[in-house]
Amino acid sequence: MRHLLLFVLLSVAACAKAPPQDTAIPAVAAAAVTAGDPVEGARVARRVGCDGCHAEGGKGGGMDIRTPQGDRIVAPNLTERRARYDDRALALLLRQGKTHDGHVPVGMPIKMLQHLSDREVRDITAWLRAIPAVDHPGLAETTLTPDAAKQFAAGTHPYSIDMLPDAGLVPPAAPPTEPLALGKHLAHTSCSECQGWDLNGFGGDDAPSLVVAKAYTPEAFRRLMRTGEVAAGGTSKTGFMSEVAAYRFSVMTDAEVAALKAYLDAR
Q1: Reduced to 3 states, what is the DSSP secondary structure of residue 185?
Q2: In angstroms, what CA-CA distances link 69 with 78, 143, 187, 246, 262?
Q3: How many distinct helices (H) and strands (E) make up the chain?
Q4: What is the pLDDT of residues 105-117, one digit of tens each?
Q5: CB–CB of 127/41 below 8 Å?
Q6: What are phi and psi for residue 143, nearest 5 degrees?
Q7: Which of 30, 32, 133, 266 suits a disulfide with 79, CB 3.0-4.6 Å?
Q8: Which of these, 149, 131, 32, 40, lies nearest to 83 by C-alpha position?
Q9: In the chain, which ranges are continuous DSSP H helix?
């Protein structure tokens, strides 16, 4: 579990890094998109970390991790990889961790992404189709040691649990509208990657149980989600939560922030 936690935290830390100049949600191409809303898809993609791990504009390399065992895990250029997937295949990737050629999507938090609604998947797909193509010369490829490759293929690698969906899970057609249900949905599609799939944490300062949310007033919680400022003022102890919140969660609406707070308080 410690190895898994390290991988998750390094992955999300890499995916939470804000661009050096412009932190606005990337603009999408004006071409008509028939399935989903690319503007809303850009917002959802920011919230769940797509354009963090894959970097601004999907150019790849926002996550580039080397393990002590000699593996290198790099988020690829989405504007190049998208041609390999039709819309159904993209849904299978996000929901079930099934890539176009059958390999495991090493580094993708499928355990979290599997909870996305049908509409959110369509919107992310529309965003992905609409972003302008970009070259990224020198972008490294993911390389695994033979042992790691065998373990991932068999689903026995310590990191595999984050990439394996739950059997029988049926995602909603759209995000719920009832506040507590919406809050639960947001928690499981935004927070569970770091705070545990049961939201009770992985341990340590970077991944505590989300019971800590109960210590925040609604105003302080909204400030945390907008700016990364913790209840006591300043940044979180390690800076991790503050960075993630400011980059990813700041795109959440007031209603979404309130729903998430209500759900976390009710647990």
Answers
A1: helix
A2: 27, 11, 32, 32, 42
A3: 13, 2
A4: 999 999 999 999 9
A5: yes
A6: -130, 130
A7: 133
A8: 131
A9: 2-15, 38-48, 50-53, 78-81, 87-96, 110-113, 118-130, 146-154, 179-190, 192-195, 218-227, 240-247, 254-266
What tokens appear for 8 in the block?
């998750």
Angle at 39 between CA 262 and CA 140, to 5 degrees: 100
- State the angle between helix axes of 218-227 and 240-247 in degrees (0 to 180), rounded to the nearest 10: 80
Instruction: Kindly report the number of other CB atoms within 10 A of residue 95's CB atom.
Output: 18
| Residues near 115 by beta carbon (within 8 Å), at least 6 away in sequence | 169, 171, 185, 188, 189, 192
- The C-alpha atoms of residue 218 and residue 14 are separated, in whole angstroms, by 28
Token pair of 74, please?
């790099």
pTM reported for the whole predicted model: 0.89
Q: For residues 236 and 135, give the distance between their C-alpha atoms in angstroms, rounded to a whole number.
A: 35
- The CB-based long-range contact list for 196-202 (8 Å cut-off, 24+ gap) reads 197/111, 197/112, 199/264, 199/267, 202/1, 202/4, 202/5, 202/8
Rounded Cα gap, residues 94 and 113, in angstroms: 6
pLDDT at 102: 86
Say if residues 243 and 16 touch (Cβ distance below 8 Å).
yes
Average pLDDT of the residues in 239-252: 94
**Structural contact between residues 225 and 252, judged by C-beta atoms closer than 8 angstroms:** yes
